[in-house]
Amino acid sequence: MGDIQETLLQSLEAFQSTQLVKNKYENILEHLDSGIMLFDSEGVLTFINVQMAKLLEVSRKSLTGCTMVQILRHPQLSRYKKKKILRIYRETLIHRKKYHELTDESGRQWLLTVTDGDQMDGDYLFSVKDVSDFKQIEQTAYRNDKLAMLGKISASIAHEIRNPLTAIRGFIQLLRPHLIKLGKDEYARIILMEIDRANDIIYEFLNSSKPSAPQTTVISVPSLLKEVVLLTESEALMKGCQVILHEDSLPLHISVDVKQIKQVILNIVKNAMDAIDHLSGENGGLIEIRAHRDQKNVHICISDNGRGMDHNTLTHLFDPFFTTKESGTGLGLSVSYRIIKNHKGYIAVNSTVGEGTEFIISLPIVEMA
Q1: In terms of domains, do 234 and 110 share one?
Q2: PAS domain: which residues (predicted)?
Q3: Could you tell me if 162 and 224 lie in one domain?
């Protein structure tokens, strides 16, 4: 009898030990930053952790024990997520796809990995990880590579193009008196204008690869923004839109190359004007400019109520030569990106299609004594 009791006690201790280990590992899985779902060989969801339930925005209790069909019919699951899950399910079963890249409603990017086969005893493990930061680093590295390549190209061809343009311009000016006599001065004017435009594109092309080093001066942010608004008033009036500056009573100062920073802000404001040129009447285009600070930076915010941008446009926004305009060079924002980076700052963009766009330029603050 004593032997039986001892055996039972050992079995109980072994069970409790196994249960403790199981609880420990389940607790770890519960609180991973990756979302996890485990389906058994019958297609029933046997485990889902806290992170995955948060991503799906459905309670774990209501999902555990469901089949894939039941999950797709779940009343709390959004239509958007149902479409994504169905696509992943089909690609996994039909094409045996192991990795899926997803973008959620807020624009964040996720990598979903499917594990099955002999090592899972017929089960299917789905794990999801937020890779937005990695993608951002990847895009920045790609952008920097393109800018470096652009610098090499521009250095080798800029003078070769500019020299003949200068010669052509000189000869057209010599011929201009003869063209005036023939009543063809308009031809000379158009040719000179187009040569100047070509020179401007080359200049912009050169600056996009390597803007000159900032010649910094400490300046008041409100006075800088007032000047920008004054420079854009006439164009805004012609386009029937408003540019409103919300002034902050707090003194804000930054140490910048005034010409370069003014170029960045004007470029963004002009882009905003292009985005709202379809609006008119009472609900006309509106551009709002404001500035505020935190402990380290001054944030200059430029928002509009225009068309807005989709995720694909936002992803490539600062790439050289990327443009959505028919006559654009695609260099303005890539130049702006490099200028702000050279000032130890950064540019952020928030945009929703049909609602508008906000650019936020952040630059190190200067504390005045």
Answers
A1: no
A2: 21-76
A3: no
Residue 360 domain flag: yes
Q: What is the CATH number of the domain that holds 326?
A: 3.30.565.10
Range of the domain at 198: 135-209
| pTM score, whole prediction | 0.52
Do 141 and 119 share a domain, yes or no?
A: no
**Which residue, 129, 145, 176, sits at the end of a domain?**
129
Residue 274's pLDDT is: 85
Q: Rounded distance, CA 256 to CA 262, Å?
A: 10
pLDDT at residue 358, as a whole number: 94
pLDDT at 287: 92
pLDDT of residue 77: 85
pLDDT beneath 50, residues of the chain: 15, 21
